[in-house]
Specification:
The complex is a heterodimer. Chain A is about 30% helix and about 35% strand. In chain A, strand 1, helix 1 and strand 2 form a beta-alpha-beta unit. Chain B has 2 domains: about 130 residues, Aspartate Aminotransferase, domain 1 (Alpha-Beta Complex), CATH 3.90.1150.10; about 240 residues, Type I PLP-dependent aspartate aminotransferase-like (Major domain) (Aspartate Aminotransferase, domain 2), CATH 3.40.640.10. The radius of gyration of chain B is 21 Å and the shape is globular. The chains are: A alpha+beta, B alpha/beta. Chains A and B meet through helix 1 and helix 2 of A and helix 2 of B.
Chain lengths: ~80, ~375
Amino acid sequence: MAAADADEALDLSGVPCPANSARALIALEGMADGRVLLVTVDDGEPVRNVPPSLAEEGHAVVRREKAGGRWRLWVRKGG
Amino acid sequence: MPLRDAGIYLDNAATTRPDPAALAAMRAFEDEHHGNPSSQHAAGVAAAREVERARQAVADALGAAPDEIVFTSGGTESNNLALKGAPLPRGGHVVVSAIEHPSVLRTADALRRRGVKVTVVGVDPRGRVSPAAVAAALTPSTALVSVMHANNETGTLEPVAEIGRLCRARGVLFHTDACQSFTRAALDAGSGDFDLISVNAHKIHGPKGVGALFVRRGTKLTPLLDGGGHERGLRSGTLNAPGIVGFGAAVRLARDASPYETQRLRDRLLVLLRRGIPGLRLNGPEDARLCGHLSVTLPRGDAKEAAQALSARGVLVSTGSACSAGKNEPSHVLLALGLTPAQAGRTLRLTLSRMTTRAEVDAAAAALVELAGSAHGRR
């Protein structure tokens, strides 16, 4: 899955927890079900905390990829 | 006791009546969310989501990125953080204008006590800070310039974009206090002309006790408070989440409202007052001023007595800024414009908001005209 496979992208590099999860959830609000948001988060706590927060709201991380000190998460909006 | 303040409220430069929709947003937040917006569990994330929504609203209104917005307790804290937090070595130099709010001027005094040199730039008779005067005040050791966007006492809009550009060209940090103008007069943080911008909520029909400082990406600041490192380390302390949510709602409501109706009513008020009170003086420019702001000097009488008499008739105005109105000294702003202490003592501030009606304007004008007429008869 490449960046081009995402419908929208959100760079949350440097954004601390839980503001990163909050911003990703706000971005997903504006998307149709099934669309994919590519989220970039920092390594460490962000990549541990963001996926469960998104899953609690019904969204699915369908792929993750480490790039340098950051992670790219492909998040499919849940219904 | 009345449940609501009664009267025709024309003191919106001091503070505004909270918009019912902003209060409703705060109430809904309080009902639904109690988590700390810094907690990682579901309640924390839910609270953080509303805080981030508000941060986005403030950022959008300024043309900034969300990461450039630091929430504070209000304009005074934002101004203190901007000036005291800026990298100012001992022997460094700061330039401020003579008409700044006390939260800038007194903070500049505090910097002076720390060994920072401070230059105060004057204004012209309309209250305008000249960019050329600011440029002339810059020295090789100047680290920061602070000039407000709109003055709280006269309503004068300052050429801050121009001043910001000349500061940028000289590698000097530029701060503007935009508490009076936020959402009412254009200011584009995205232009790169501003490093630091202070704004607050209660001047735009939001709650009291919450504000923000725009900190341009890459600008180094030292926090005033040590603690948990909230707000990207710049403002420790648990966030005032309900206040921030109310701030965000107020910003969205303000951006949906047009300033032109307020300006039209302000112009009507000025016409009625000029027609009824010969010799009335308008302070500040006719054009480059805040949309709802009037500062007028009566030809005779005493402004404090006039304000009291108007209050007794249900018309609420002020004799100066809310922060200096309790003092007996003449306003430093009006003196800087060249008014005599006697003229400053005859000066009233009448400030409208988008909630002001034409009927209120007409009634307030009639009350002041009648009062000025009776003062004329006495003397």
